[in-house]
Amino acid sequence: MDHIPFGDTPLTRCHFYRRVCDLPAVIDPPHMGRIVMPATHVWALMMPAHLGQAVKIEMQSQETDLGPILSHPRSIRWTYLIRPDLPDEDSLFAELFRLNVSVVREGGTIALPSPTDQRVEFRRWVEPPRCMYRPSGALVLNAIRACLGPGKHRAVTHG
After folding, report:
1. What φ, ψ does residue 26 adopt, rounded to 5°?
2. In 3D, which of 5, 43, 7, 45 has the Cα closest to residue 23?
3. Is the pTM of the predicted complex or chain greater than 0.90?
4. Domain residue limits, the chain
5. Rounded CA gap, 12 and 93, in Å?
6. How do residues 94-149 score in pLDDT, each as one tens digit?
């Protein structure tokens, strides 16, 4: 692990994720330095990178805070960390399936960037976490729909 900058180790990064960002991160397996977290009070929306980039631009045009966004260069996908507020509806999951978007919800596992990932480019931050903020899943979903064009999808509403 000689390629890790002094002071940035899987353990220190994990502590930062837990204490500053309220991400329940753990090192698993310890000998590889991979950092993961169970999807509990944080979920994720995973999508193709081209859609992820368009969603980022859409959210910025609406002056919406982005929250943490991960890139997976090898699989050409982006992951938005979100609040767990998407409804459990078959029609929603069918829509997302057609768009090649998946929801990592309660019971899933989300891999986070680790200092050991830097040379192999497994995961990296597009927008790193800086605090406990994560956007609403409904907000990110509506940005996905806006990128696909008006009138093609219904907006997600609460309550």
Report:
1. -140, 160
2. 43
3. no
4. 10-148
5. 36
6. 999 999 999 999 999 999 999 886 666 789 999 999 999 999 999 999 999 999 87
**Residue 40: count of CB within 10 angstroms of its CB:** 13
**Whole-angstrom Cα distance, residue 17 to residue 26?**
9
Question: CA dist 47 to 21, 26, 75, 99, 127, Å?
Answer: 22, 24, 10, 8, 15
Residue 17, SS3 per DSSP = helix
Burial class (CB in 10 A: 0-12, 13-18, 19+), 55: buried
Structure token digits, residue 39: 């999807």
Q: In terms of C-beta density within 10 A (0-12 exposed, 13-18 middle, 19 or more buried), how is residue 144 classed?
A: buried
